Amino acid sequence: MERGTYFDFYEVGTGIYAAIVHDGAGALGNAGIVDLGDRTLVFDTTQSIPAAQELKNVAKKLTGQEASLVVNSHRHNDHVLGNQVFADATIISTEVTRSVMANRLPAFLEFAKAHPEYPNQIRNRLSDASLSDQGRWEVERDLGDTEHLAAHLPEYVPTLPTLCFENQMHIYGSAREAQLLTYGSAHSASDAFMYLPEDKVLFVGDLAFIGYHPSMADGNPELWVTILGRILELEFDTVIAGHGPVGNRSHVEQTKHYVEHFIETARSNSETVNADGIPIEYRDWRGESVYFGNLKFLNGRYGRS
Ligand SMILES: [Zn+2]
């Protein structure tokens, strides 16, 4: 394991690295580095320009060549805002992700510039005596990430993917094959993942969360369940998710159960998913405000207030 300022880098297969973020340091979303042999690929670029620079530097150090291929798993800031550091590379996403980014990325940066008070608003929440330990952890993490973003706000240049696919793209490197796949909208409008079939490694972006509440409000929970079912049909052992440590098949199953649990209980209006508390099996997961956001979203989706 190599420890950086923004990530810990784990070699999960020969020439395959998971970049797992340090919480609150600014990057927010995990990333990956894959040595394809004749080319180096970086999977997701995080929310932070300095973190993306670290990713780029470490990719070169570990593989001996500059990253020439970059993948954006989906349109969320914590996976794409570092794109500009890789402006010389080919940046790949789905067509849908690129078209959503083209609208949302400049709009987000304008919005953030117009609201310089935002980090202080988060800081003020720390004085709330009713915060749980989990709640406090989350506010401190958000504060760290938001202050980092605010400090670099003038530097951001919206940088869009330059090569798009609809359903899949296979990249044949001299050392291994990487398959980029999407089964549609799950966690966002379009979620792509990368499958290394010879290595049985899956970079899933935010299709799975490990030890963090998966946010559902920007996607399609019902399709998410179907899509994770299809992903589980693939042969893989190692999973790198957008949030959380390096995982395995059981973590993809866990995310599927979480989303299923929300849908079933929202549909049946059972007491298991409710505003009184997080179910016991998810209580040690990070990001508890996401649980309540999911609750609100699904109640709206199923016609409850
Ligand atoms: Zn996301």
UniProtKB/TrEMBL annotation:
Occurrences of domain Metallo-beta-lactamase (ranges): 28-243
Domain of life: Bacteria
One Pfam family recorded for the sequence: Lactamase_B
Protein name: MBL fold metallo-hydrolase
Organism of origin: Alicyclobacillus mengziensis
Source taxonomy: Bacteria, Bacillati, Bacillota, Bacilli, Bacillales
